[in-house]
Specification:
The chain has about 70 residues and is of the alpha+beta class. It has one helix at about 30-50, and strands at about 20, 25.
Length: about 70
């Protein structure tokens, strides 16, 4: 989801996910991947609290928003 070229000028490996001074550096550290992960964790937490939930939970992600 939401991947474009890494580009130039990285001071860390953009594909490694480096934690430095309490911050995460790498591809996807500040875009929709974090929001998508949070949505999945929230859905899992909800189902732990309400295991007999009779409805459906759908998580979706937008792709290719850079294309305009």
């Amino acid at each position: 989801i939401d991947v474009v070229d890494a580009g130039e000028g990285w001071t860390v490996d953009p594909f490694e996910g480096v934690v430095k001074d309490g911050k995460v550096y790498g591809r996807g550290a500040c875009d929709m991947k974090g929001g998508l992960a949070a949505s999945i964790i929230a859905a899992e937490a909800f189902l732990e609290v309400y295991p007999d939930f009779a409805g459906s939970i759908e998580i979706s992600g937008t792709v290719d928003e850079e294309s305009g």
